[in-house]
Design a protein that fits this description.
Shape: globular
Helix content: 40-55%
Strand order of the largest sheet: 2-3-1-4-5
Order of helices and strands: HHHHHEHEHHHHHHHEHEHHHEHHHHH
Radius of gyration: 21 Å
Strand content: 5-15%
C-alpha cells in the first residue's frame, strides 16, 4: 500500500459543495452544545421521544459509554458529523426501546425458530458482498433488506413488505453516505432494498465493528476486539425472530466480515448455522479496505486518517493474526467443519454459476433451476464496474507476502497482480 492510501498522508476525496458550504457557514457555532453526545442526555431523549423506558439487557450500556467517550476524545467530528452521529445514536436507542415493547406485547415471538441460517463472512473486500447478493436471488434464502435493520418495529408483514411506508425514509437515511462522499458509491451499493450486513444490526448493541469503521475511535476499537461478543449474537437472534414473525423466512441469509473473528460464538448461538467463508489475496483486499475506511471516516471528520491506529482492522499483522486464528480453530476442531464452506473470490469472478453450484453442494442446499436463472439475470443486469471503479494501491513487498503465506497455502488462495 502506498503513502497515499495508508497512514496520515491518505488523500481524502473532495467534499461535495453543499457540505463544504455547510461546514464553512457553521464554523463559529458551539457544536458540542448544539449537537450533544452525552450518554445520559441521549438515553433520556430516546425515552422521552418514545414514551418507553425498557432497553432490554444492560450489556449495551458499557460499550455505549466507552464509544461516546472515544468519540469526544478521539474522533474530532465536524459539525455535520456530530449531528449525524447524534441522529444515529438516538435511532439505535429508540429502536431498542421499540423492540422490547414489541416483545412485551407479543411474548410468542420468542418461540420463533431460526432454521439453518446461512452466514457469509471473510476479509472485507474479499467478495462477501457479491456472493451475498448472488445467494439472495434464490427464493429459499431471505436476506434482510436494509430498511428492516433501520426500522424493524413494528415487525414487517408479508402482505405489505414490498410497500411498507417506512421504506422511503429508510432509503433517504441509507443513501446519505453517498451524498456526503460521492466516491463511496463506487465502493458499496446503497439503497433500502439492498441486503445489508449484520454489522448494521449489531450497532443496536453498541458492540459493532461497523461503528469502529465509521468513527475514528481507536480506544473503542481496542475494547471491542477484547470484548465478549455473545451479547451481540444473542440480541441479533432476538431481532431476527422479530423480523420473521409476521414475514416468514425459509433460511436467513446473513453477512458480515466480522463473523470471521467470532465464529465459535456464532456457532454457540446459532448451532445449526452454515457459514460460508470467502477467500481473496489478503494483500489486494487490504489495499481496498484501507481506502474504504479512510472514506468512511472522512464523512464525519476532518481528522487525518491514521490507519496504523487501528491495528486489528487494518495492519497486515493484525489481519494475518485473524486469518491464522481461523486456521487454528479449524485444525483444533473448535468449529464444525461440516458446517463450513469455502469460496474463492477468483473462482466466483471467473465462473460464478459453477462456483455457486459447488458451494451449494457442500453446504447441503439445492441449487435449483429457478435459482440458477435468477443469478444469471442478476449478473447480466449488474456488470462489474456498473457503479464506478474503486481504485486503490497495494503493498506487494516480500515481508507482507510472507505474513499471509500460511493462509494462502492453507486455502489455495492465488496472489493477484
Amino acid at each position: 500500500m502506498t503513502e497515499n492510501t495508508r497512514g496520515r498522508r491518505w488523500t481524502p476525496p473532495p467534499r461535495p459543495q453543499w457540505l463544504a458550504s455547510f461546514l464553512q457557514e457553521t464554523r463559529s457555532w458551539q457544536t458540542q452544545a448544539v449537537a450533544r453526545l452525552d450518554a445520559d442526555e441521549l438515553i433520556e431523549t430516546a425515552q422521552r421521544n418514545t414514551g418507553l423506558t425498557d432497553f432490554g439487557p444492560d450489556d449495551w450500556r458499557e460499550p455505549f459509554r466507552i464509544l461516546l467517550r472515544a468519540v469526544e476524545d478521539e474522533a474530532e467530528l465536524h459539525f455535520f458529523g456530530r449531528l449525524w452521529t447524534r441522529q444515529d445514536f438516538l435511532q439505535f436507542l429508540e429502536t431498542r426501546l421499540h423492540i422490547e415493547a414489541t416483545y412485551a406485547a407479543h411474548p410468542q415471538i420468542e418461540d420463533e425458530v431460526i432454521d439453518r441460517p446461512v452466514f457469509v463472512t471473510g476479509l472485507p473486500r474479499s467478495g462477501t458482498s457479491i456472493l451475498f447478493e448472488l445467494l439472495a436471488q434464490d427464493p429459499q434464502f431471505m436476506a434482510p433488506a436494509n430498511w428492516e435493520f433501520v426500522f424493524p418495529c413494528p415487525p414487517p408483514e408479508a402482505a405489505t413488505y414490498r410497500s411498507d411506508p417506512r421504506v422511503p425514509r429508510a432509503h433517504d437515511l441509507i443513501t446519505q453516505m453517498g451524498r456526503v462522499a460521492p466516491t463511496f458509491n463506487a465502493m458499496h451499493e446503497l439503497g433500502a432494498w439492498i441486503p445489508n450486513e449484520c454489522g448494521i444490526a449489531f450497532r443496536l448493541t453498541f458492540r459493532s465493528q461497523y461503528l469502529a469503521a465509521t468513527l475514528q475511535v481507536p480506544s473503542y476499537a481496542a475494547w471491542l476486539f477484547a470484548a465478549d461478543q455473545r451479547p451481540v449474537y444473542e440480541y441479533y437472534r432476538r431481532l431476527l425472530k422479530l423480523l420473521q414473525w409476521k414475514n416468514p423466512r425459509g433460511h436467513w441469509l446473513l453477512k458480515a466480515p466480522e463473523h470471521q473473528s467470532f465464529m465459535p460464538t456464532l456457532f454457540e448461538v446459532f448451532p445449526d448455522a452454515r457459514v460460508i467463508v470467502t477467500h481473496r489475496d489478503p494483500v489486494k483486499a487490504q489495499g481496498s479496505v484501507t481506502n474504504l475506511m479512510g472514506t468512511l471516516y472522512w464523512m464525519r471528520s476532518d481528522k487525518p486518517f491514521d490507519a496504523e491506529a487501528f491495528e486489528q482492522l487494518l495492519t497486515p499483522e493484525g489481519v494475518a493474526a485473524r486469518l491464522e486464528q481461523m486456521i487454528d480453530w479449524i485444525d483444533s476442531g473448535a468449529l464444525p467443519a461440516a458446517q463450513l464452506t469455502h469460496s474463492r473470490y477468483a473462482d466466483l469472478l471467473q465462473s460464478p454459476i459453477e462456483a455457486l453450484r459447488a458451494l451449494y453442494a457442500h453446504a447441503g442446499f439445492e441449487f435449483t433451476d429457478e435459482a440458477r436463472s435468477a443469478v444469471a439475470r442478476y449478473l447480466a443486469a449488474k456488470p462489474q464496474g456498473k457503479f464506478g471503479v474503486h481504485r486503490y494501491d497495494v503493498d506487494q513487498n516480500d515481508r507482507t507476502r510472507q505474513l499471509f503465506a500460511r493462509y494462502q497455502r492453507y486455502f489455495d488462495v492465488p496472489s493477484e497482480e
